[in-house]
Design a protein that fits this description.
Helix content is about 45%, strand content about 15%. It is α/β, with parallel strands linked by helices and about 350 residues long. The chain has a 6-stranded mixed sheet. Bound molecules: calcium ion. Calcium ion binds next to loops.
């Protein structure tokens, strides 16, 4: 039983057994050239996210020696940003670059494959995805939508957001109108605030005109690009609601299965390379943007512990509630939570204790 479990997890997490096809049938496909489209949820070439999609497309084209040519479409060029999933599922494009939490309407389980409040950081996410049951469960979840998911980027820990007043206690969240989508928004609402979902391009004006009192976006690199420091004075950390969201590449399953073995590997390896590359890009650029924001005299403040403790308590409640909604969400929730509980003691005595003393 144990051995079978080990073999299943090995096969799926490395995605190798699925690639072992019949070699004679593969040869006929070796000269085929594929013209593929990639739709994304990001403005064309948006720093980090959009450039990550472009890099992924280029890498697939170059690694395949031009046998797969990928053309990238920004948000709204072929489909609106939040229709990427359905479009790739139906084969309108072969590839999609997006974030799994956008698809919580399909299943609440999707959110665990991007980020959940007070969840795992980027390194822990990768460990769960590649060496735990993460990718296996993600494939199971997307299978009925005719999609194959791959991790293909990560922003690292995000910032808590921009506020037009100081947050000294949980009471300061009451009545606060904040742009914060997904589970983070649900947590804020239960803490007494009002959560609003706005596309990235609408955030600056909403904050500047007082339509909202606060907003989160990503981190210094992306927040500076939208000029959010010109619309609010207080910049809070940490991003408790998005502690290292995985960005996804979804592949139409029929199209993926039509590829010869080496081109399937090209897709998989390119996604893995971009998964690392985007995180490195964010770490380098966030650092530079943070220096700039400090020079602009922005108040960079940590949320009080009392506030974080309350938000964590609410987050745990909400995650438990959504896990009861359907079978697959329950299965994903259990795997995620048990991996997190196992990995945390190691993170505590390695990364965390080291970062505290350096
Ligand atoms: Ca965010």
């Amino acid at each position: 039983m144990k051995r079978r479990k080990f073999l299943t997890s090995l096969g799926s997490s490395l995605a190798l057994t699925s690639l072992l096809g019949n070699s004679s049938s593969l040869r006929a496909k070796e000269k085929t050239e594929y013209q593929w489209k990639m739709v994304t949820s990001w403005p064309k070439n948006f720093p980090g996210l959009g450039t990550g999609a472009e890099n992924l497309a280029k890498l697939i084209t170059n690694l395949s020696n031009g046998r797969i040519k990928v053309k990238v479409f920004g948000a709204n060029e072929l489909v609106p940003p939040l229709e990427v999933f359905d479009f790739v599922s139906k084969g309108g494009a072969e590839l999609g670059h997006s974030g799994a939490y956008y698809w919580k309407g399909k299943s609440q389980a999707c959110q665990f494959f991007s980020s959940v409040p007070f969840g795992m950081n980027s390194q822990e996410m990768n460990a769960w995805l590649y060496y735990g049951d993460g990718i296996k469960l993600w494939e199971k979840l997307y299978d009925k939508f005719n999609l194959i998911p791959r991790p293909a980027g990560n922003t690292g820990v995000q910032m808590g957001g921009w506020f037009n007043k100081k947050i000294n206690s949980v009471n300061d969240l009451k009545g606060l109108k904040m742009r914060i989508p997904g589970l983070g928004g649900e947590v804020l609402s239960r803490a007494g605030g009002t959560s609003v979902t706005l596309a990235g391009s609408e955030i600056f004006t909403a904050l500047q005109t007082g339509v909202i009192d606060a907003t989160e976006w990503v981190g210094p690199y992306n927040d500076r690009a939208f000029g959010l420091h010109k619309a609010a004075k207080y910049y809070y950390y940490p991003g408790w609601h998005e502690p290292g969201p995985t960005i996804e590449c979804m592949i139409n399953k029929d199209k993926y299965n039509s590829l010869p073995t080496d081109l399937k590997l090209v897709i998989d390896i390119a996604c893995k390379a971009i998964n690392l590359d985007m995180l490195s890009d964010y770490t380098a650029k966030n650092n530079l943007a943070l220096q700039f924001l400090k020079s602009e005299n922005i108040n960079i403040l940590k949320f009080p512990n009392e506030v974080l403790t309350k938000l964590k308590e609410i987050s745990d409640e909400i995650l438990k509630e959504i896990s009861a909604k359907d079978e697959i969400t329950n299965e994903v929730y259990k795997s995620y939570v048990s991996f997190k509980e196992d990995v945390e003691p190691w993170t505590d005595i390695s990364d965390k204790s080291y970062l505290d003393i350096r």
